[in-house]
Amino acid sequence: MKKNLKRVCAAALAGAMVLLLPGCSGGLANDVNDGTVNENTEQTDFYIMGGQSALSAGYDEMEVLNALQENVGIHIDWETMSDSLAEQVNIRITGGQLPDAFQGVGFSNYDLARYGDDGTFLDLSPYLTPDIMPNLCAVLEEHPEIRAAVTMEDGGIYGLPSGEQMTTAGIGVDMEDAFSIYSVPQYSMINKAWLDDLGLPVPTSLDELHDALKAFKENDMSSKYYGNAAGSTIPMTTGFDEWCWGQNIFYSGFGFTNWPNDVCNDLHLKEDGTVEFVCVTDAYRDCLTYFHDWYAEGLMDVEMFSQSDSQLIAKCQQGYVGVSTWWYIEELMGEYAKDYVFLPPLTGPKGTEYEDVCNVTIRPGSPISSGQLCITNKCKSPVNLLKFYDQWYDGETVMQLQYGPKGVFFTGQEEGTGMWLSITEEESQAKFGKSSGELKNLYEVWGPKLILAEYYNSVFYMEDRAIERLTDLDTFWMPYVKDTTFYPVDCVFTGMEMETIDWHKTDFETTVKEQEGLWIKEGGPTDEEWEAYKERLSEKCGMDDLLEVYQDAYERYSAAE
Amino acid sequence: MASTAKKKASGMSDKTSDIILVAICVVVLLIVAYPLYYVLIASFSDPYQVYAGKTFLLPSGFTLDGYKAVFAEKSIVSAFFNSVKYTVIGTVFSVVMLYITAYPLAQKGLPGRKFLSIFFLFTMYFGGGLVPTYLVVKQTGLVGSMWALFLPGGVGVGNMIIVRNYFQNSIPRDLLEASSIDGCSKLRTFLSVVIPLSMPILAVMVVFSMVAYWNDWFTALIYLGGKGSPLPLVMRNILIKSSASASQAATISGGYAELNKLTELLKFCSMIVAALPMLIIYPFVQKHFEKGFMAGAVKG
């Protein structure tokens, strides 16, 4: 027995050595990350690895990109993929088989800090000079907040900025008052034809909606009105805490809407500049207690916690559904769309303190990221490559990289303003046999594309449906937003803070979501359950640490502004 | 004999018991076969009608769009032949490796036998993980070569133990002795006595390896670098190509619902296309299957 044990140990040791060996051979010399410019300009052939849209045929034949390469006299070999990008990139970085740059990978700030620290990615801050990158420098001059968003805690910039600022500025709202297209992600909708048939008004309070849903169910409207099978009516169905098809909009009657978002779910910045988690407020507790009654009465779909968006679309396109949420009405409801109207955010239940409450909070827009273009320590002449990328920070170029070339996606310039016009749906079908969305997917280049809000009213018009959605946002939904503060998505966190977030955030979000679902399903919390829940969040899920991190980061952010 | 007599005494005729058995088998068959059939009809149906629960025995909203999209992919034919190639070569390689590993380990007199057994067993409990394995494969220069699919996992240890047990327990020692008395060399014994006697387990191992190589896309994804992709990988790419995330739909004017419909349909179609060849081959090998599997395992 003893002998066997020895052998096992020996085998284990041998195994461990085999595993450790490759680690030793990975020592890459990094002599260029010392905050100075590497003046070398010999290299003109580059090898770049990265992501592409699923429909793209690769970048070799992309005329816009080829022209940009010619302008600065370089040639790029592309290795791009739409699939399993993260695995492939990780393998390359760990294996030391680095390309000259990673484009369109989308590294998180955590990755950027790590790879910047170990010298894998070059610090680009010394290169951001008007000599090397005139366009980008002009942009950063005008928008210091973009520079702040991509500067890591150690002062380094490990990637070029990217972001898409699609806001109501594109439909003529002043830049200062403009809001992101993501501000209110869920548009709730209700079947007006059913309401009319029953002689009911469009609800304005949760009580009225409750009665309407009850009437839908009792009269089996799907069967009665659309001739579907008996009993097929689903009064209300949504996803659960899903970003554009969740139930969160209905919480407005309790004074909050806890949108899933990129910073941290349930995090809310109050007007006085303090942050809180709405998932431990009394309003949240009352809200879940209230909606359990709906669930118990069969007004909310039993599948709401588990269904996929495909299942939701399937139900809605059969005409089974009275109330739901989505990005647009047409897309979700298909041929029944004409019967649906927006269901406005509702006031709280009568006879409670929430009677006159109706508040929609807004969700931050998409962040400025620096994970879309990172130059590695393999690159001998970063200057040449950066000159190539500087061309991307020009409105007309970035528009073609985002949507497609002039002459394909952009059909011409409007007289007078010189704004570029996008191809319409009909033209696209007639000329290319594809929807304009597919056309965009075909030509889109992933990478450091910075599409500033002002481009939409100076360089090109955004797509019709985006305009439509923003118009709805501006005229119908924003009036329900009383408090327009939201946690800035571009807050920069220190290394320690990022670790706290990395450690706790997922745990915290999952725990909250699971408990939220359970309480809706099985009845709101008793006092003990509520206390135990709060204790669990504080002690096991790091809620207090997270809150502190978000508060500190916000204070630094607002001080810098 | 006594037991049959007893059964008869209890009043159940052969005929009734047959009827009951057949009835049970039919129910079990239906339970097992319906999901397969359902996937088949779903691959011809409007996926939103499938998800709305409208499909039961016949396709609803009949469509061939899914199959059209699959066969519109030019690389599908070459992918099919790639898969056949990898499956055939991989299966032959793996079975040979299994045999030449398991047979020596089945010999009681092999020096260091216990150590070797533990050495193999160890790998069943501990693995290096993806990145270290990739590094080893890279340093041996196999990345981009088809051999990267076979060499790193050439000996399936679990299978090897089954084969070893079979050799130990199901091939009579006397037979081996007899052959050596008749003048067979060790090699001749292996080739002319052991292999023919182990046909049932051979069939099992062929099926195991075949199914594993046919279904494997991850190894190909990691090591082949996009060249010579096998069928499942191409199917997966087709599926991914057609999927558009809801967040993209925000700016796509063509509409998420329509794109997503095709994606859902492709899920069913790709299942059928990828599984069909295996479903066709399976019955031919299956008759050896159960016997061989039990033979190795029970006495282990």
Give an overview in words:
The complex is a heterodimer of chains A (561) and B (300). In chain A, strands 2-1-3-11 form a four-stranded mixed beta sheet, covered by helices on one side. A four-stranded mixed beta sheet of chain A has the order 6-9-5-10. Residues 1-32 of chain A have low confidence and may be disordered. Chain A has helices at residues 2-24, 63-72, 85-95, 109-117, 134-142, 144-150, 192-198, 206-218, 221-226, 282-296, 309-317, 329-333, 382-390, 395-402, 425-432, 436-443, 464-477, 495-522, 527-539, 543-560, and strands at residues 45-51, 75-81, 101-103, 163-164, 187-191, 234-236, 267-269, 275-277, 321-326, 340-342, 373-375, 410-413, 420-422, 450-451. Chain A is built from 20 helices and 14 strands. In chain A, a hairpin with a 5-residue loop joins strand 7 and strand 8. Chain A is of the alpha/beta class and 561 residues long. Chain A folds into two domains: 45-167 and 367-457, Periplasmic binding protein-like II (D-Maltodextrin-Binding Protein, domain 2); 187-361 and 493-560, 3-Layer(aba) Sandwich (D-Maltodextrin-Binding Protein, domain 2). In chain A, helix 5 (134-142) crosses helix 6 (144-150), helix 10 runs parallel beside helix 18 and helix 18 crosses helix 20. Chain B is an all-alpha fold and 300 residues long. Chain B folds into two domains: 2-42; 65-298, MetI-like fold, CATH 1.10.3720.10. Helices cover 75% and strands 0% of the residues of chain B. Chain B has 16 helices and no strands. In chain B, helix 9 runs antiparallel to helix 12 (199-215), helix 12 (199-215) packs antiparallel against helix 16 and helix 14 (231-242) runs antiparallel to helix 16. Chains A and B meet through helix 1, helix 3, helix 11, helix 12 and helix 16 of A and helix 3, helix 6, helix 7, helix 14 and helix 15 of B.
